Amino acid sequence: MSDGSDDVSRFTHFRYGQEPQPAEPVPDTLAVPHPGPLSPRGMLISCVQCQATRDWLLIHVHPDMVFIRCRCAHEWRERDLEAHHVTEARNDSFEEREWGSFDEMYRGLGFDGLFRGVYLAE
């Protein structure tokens, strides 16, 4: 029978007498390429770094944050877009895929800066 000292030594990264805190869940994220221009409130959205006006990656982070990423790798939160804009951008040919990381996803979809200044055909 143990005196309990072994139990404490297994959890040296926790303060004695406190329960470990669960890790925060990773938010669900949906990223959808959007080849056309965006003007949700009648004003054309453009990238402040390269002045691109189309060919975006729309990123919806639950519950209600939407980000835009440009081919030049500039990314910003776009408060004029909502979750329904991202889901509407999905079409029947949209192929769902899971990525190991955001960097892997950006490289795989061509939004890592490699295509900076290049417009892909619609």
TrEMBL record:
Span list, region Disordered: 1-35
Protein name as annotated: Uncharacterized protein
Organism in which the protein naturally occurs: Kitasatospora cystarginea
